[in-house]
């Protein structure tokens, strides 16, 4: 019995839903009641040139929009879109001053059977500023990628500067007049005309700041590309400087140019690096010597070089101390005949160093009288070798006159 009751209740519920749906269909299709809907519509700001006569300009950083309440039948309201309406704020009206101004918005276009319920109370607030102008550099930004194997060369411009004009708060933020060109899939030279837009250093576009000239005519040169080696050029003895290698951070570089010229190029040289001047530097930037007519793709004018030094070793030698520049008629005796010298350098350099490779002497050229005195020992070392320690650093010298005229 309970089962029959539940089944009956289910049938009643289904019938109620069907009846409600049928009633809704009747009302929608035959009664078509009136309803309200709120939509957001853009506002055109007109007669800005009237303000310009008073050296004023509106501060507009983005498109103005306003909410309107539209009223009409259900079927017509549901078919509406934003493009059915045109709203306008007129800056030509009297009484506009510097600062914030409340400007009435009028409905210039709407569907015939639709009413804008709040048409009499539509306003936007527009900030009015002093109109100024300044000159800024013109810049071309290439966007996208040329076809594989091709490169679009940054154009040489006949127009180097442009005048931007508008409210001071926006004009002061403008850094460049920028023409943006989409070069996607370019594979041959192209003549283009692009609008110049006022942009900040960070790339913000001020669309309501005017630019003169308004556009830019350009011919974009498209070149073939080729990947070649980077050739590091040096002067001086790498081994003697303790350098194991000087290698570019990237061993390959892409260049662009005339196809015939590219065929003859297998690498791009760096400027010569004087190894003696590196003084232990781990990296150095070297200018790339690019042939005339060739362009570097995606690189600056230089390349970073990584410097690797050979591991250093030490070696200790006993070196005779010699006498130099002894004046005629004198003889000299040293209290020590040799010095113990510890030198450092790469294992490769040190392997060829002997005591004979090192100059170790005292210079007696300034001594002209007999007697004993202490004199500094001087060392001369081969390239790539440095002194770590030496004993003694000085010696005692005894000077005597020769009895026989000999030394």
Descriptive notes:
It is a single chain. With 407 residues, the chain is mainly beta. It has five domains: 31 residues; 97 residues, RNA Polymerase Alpha Subunit, Chain A, domain 2, CATH 2.170.120; 90 residues, RNA Polymerase Alpha Subunit, Chain A, domain 2 (Beta Complex), CATH 2.170.120.40; 86 residues, RNA Polymerase Alpha Subunit, Chain A, domain 2, CATH 2.170.120.40; 89 residues, RNA Polymerase Alpha Subunit, Chain A, domain 2. 13% of the residues lie in helices and 49% in strands. It has six helices and 32 strands. Strands 1, 2, 3, 4, 5, 6, 7, 9, 10, 12 and 13 form an eleven-stranded mixed β-sheet that branches. The longest helix is centred in the first third of the chain and has 30 residues. 17% of the residues are buried.
Give the secondary structure arrangement, pairings included.
Elements: H1 2-31, E1 34-46, H2 48-52, E2 56-58, E3 65-73, H3 74-78, E4 86-90, E5 99-109, E6 115-116, E7 123-143, E8 150-152, E9 161-167, H4 168-171, E10 176-182, E11 190-195, E12 197-199, E13 210-212, E14 215-220, E15 222-231, E16 234-235, E17 243-248, E18 252-257, H5 259-263, E19 267-270, E20 273-274, E21 283-289, E22 295-296, E23 302-309, E24 312-320, E25 322-324, E26 330-334, E27 338-346, H6 347-350, E28 359-363, E29 371-376, E30 378-380, E31 386-391, E32 394-401
Parallel strand pairs: 1-4, 7-10, 15-19, 16-20, 25-28
Antiparallel strand pairs: 1-3, 2-7, 3-6, 4-5, 5-7, 7-9, 8-15, 9-13, 10-12, 11-14, 15-18, 17-23, 18-22, 19-21, 21-23, 24-27, 26-32, 27-31, 28-30, 29-32
């Amino acid at each position: 019995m309970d089962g029959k009751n539940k089944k009956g209740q289910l049938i009643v519920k289904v019938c109620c839903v069907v009846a409600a749906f049928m009633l809704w269909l009747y009302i929608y299709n035959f009664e078509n009641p009136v309803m309200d809907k709120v939509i957001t519509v853009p506002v055109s700001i007109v007669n800005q040139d009237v303000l310009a006569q008073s050296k004023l300009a509106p501060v507009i950083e983005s498109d103005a929009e306003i909410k309107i309440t539209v009223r009409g039948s259900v079927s017509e309201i549901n078919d509406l879109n934003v493009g059915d309406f045109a709203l306008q704020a007129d800056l030509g009206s009297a009484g506009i001053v510097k600062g914030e101004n409340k400007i009435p918005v009028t409905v210039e276009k709407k569907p015939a059977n639709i009413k804008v319920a709040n048409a009499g109370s539509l306003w936007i607030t527009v900030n009015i500023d002093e109109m100024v102008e300044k000159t800024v550099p013109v810049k071309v930004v290439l966007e996208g990628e040329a076809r594989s194997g091709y490169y679009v060369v940054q154009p040489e411009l006949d127009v180097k500067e442009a005048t931007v004009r508008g409210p001071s708060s926006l004009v002061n933020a403008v850094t460049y007049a920028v023409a943006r060109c989409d070069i996607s899939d370019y594979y041959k030279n192209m003549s283009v005309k692009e609008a110049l837009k006022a942009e900040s250093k960070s790339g913000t576009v001020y669309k309501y700041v005017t630019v003169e000239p308004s556009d830019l005519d350009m011919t974009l040169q498209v070149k073939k590309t080729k990947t070649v080696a980077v050739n590091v050029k040096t002067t001086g003895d790498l081994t003697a400087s303790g350098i194991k290698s000087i290698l570019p951070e990237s061993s390959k570089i892409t260049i662009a140019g005339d196809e015939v010229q590219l065929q003859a190029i297998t690498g791009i040289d760096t400027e010569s690096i004087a190894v003696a001047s590196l003084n232990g530097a781990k990296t150095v930037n070297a200018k790339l010597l690019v042939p005339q007519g060739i362009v570097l793709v995606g690189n600056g004018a230089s390349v970073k070089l990584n410097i690797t030094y050979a591991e250093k070793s030490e070696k200790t030698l006993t070196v005779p101390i010699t006498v130099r520049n002894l004046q005629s008629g004198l003889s000299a005796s040293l209290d020590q005949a040799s010095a113990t010298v510890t030198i450092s350098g790469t294992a490769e350099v040190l392997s060829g160093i002997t005591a004979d490779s090192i100059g170790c002497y005292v210079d007696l050229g300034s001594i002209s009288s007999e007697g004993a005195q202490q004199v500094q020992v001087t060392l001369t070392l081969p390239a790539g070798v440095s002194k770590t320690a030496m004993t003694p650093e000085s010696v005692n010298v005894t000077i005597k006159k020769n009895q026989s005229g000999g030394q």
